[in-house]
Amino acid sequence: MGRALRADAERSVRAILEAAERVLAEDAGASMEQIAEAAGLTRITVHRRFANRQALLEALAVSAKQQLIDAIEEARPDSAPALVALYRVTANVLRVKSTWRYTLSHATAHTAAAAALWEEINAHTVDLLNRAQHEGLLAPDADLDWTRQVYYALLSEALNKPDADQDPAAQDPDALATLVIDTLLHGAGPRG
Questions:
Q1: With DSSP H G I counted as helix, E B as strand and the rest as coil, what are the percentages for the chain, rounded to 5?
Q2: Domain segments of the chain: what residues?
């Protein structure tokens, strides 16, 4: 009985978080009641899981960042050549970021847990960029902290391409990953 109750609680938390992402993306000032309605739950159920709006925002931040880590690890970045790993990680991260646009693009609550997850994401990224540098994909003197910042900016820009909402193919994570990696490694200059 306890396991079924726990599974039910996990499903309602997942439903609340997914509904919160959708509702807040449309209206950042949406109420807990609006989120509950979108999740198909009562306001009381939402408040039972999250004491207040701040707690919900903190849970959103932690959940989205954990999903980014899962996406990175799912790509198995240590078991493939750096170029393949970079592409896989990028495509997986773009999939997560496209689902959690509101949470990952707004200044959501930064708890110690969310900060620790962000540090883990940064560590994974720097490790991968180090491998790319050692395999000759990046210049030996490339500043990897700067490269990481540029990579993150490219990920964000890829999801916000102009007219992307007009062309669904423009939001394909695999095509966007190719664009991001090509731009990161080669810039906009002519190919030699």
A1: 75, 0, 25
A2: 1-50, 58-186
Give 158-177 pLDDT, tens digit per residue: 988 777 667 766 788 999 99
Shortest CA distance to 181 belongs to which of 87, 97, 100, 72? Answer: 87
Q: Topology of 58-186 in CATH?
A: Tetracycline Repressor; domain 2 (1.10.357)
Residues in the chain: 192
Residues 104, 107, 109: CA angle, nearest 5 degrees: 95
* Residue corresponding to tokens 């695999």: 174
Burial degree of 186 (CB within 10 A; 0-12, 13-18, 19+): exposed
Tokens of 40: 């198909």
C-beta separation of 68 from 93 below 8 A? yes
pLDDT in tens, 42-77: 889 898 899 998 899 999 999 999 999 999 999 988
Record: fold of 1-50: Arc Repressor Mutant, subunit A (1.10.10)
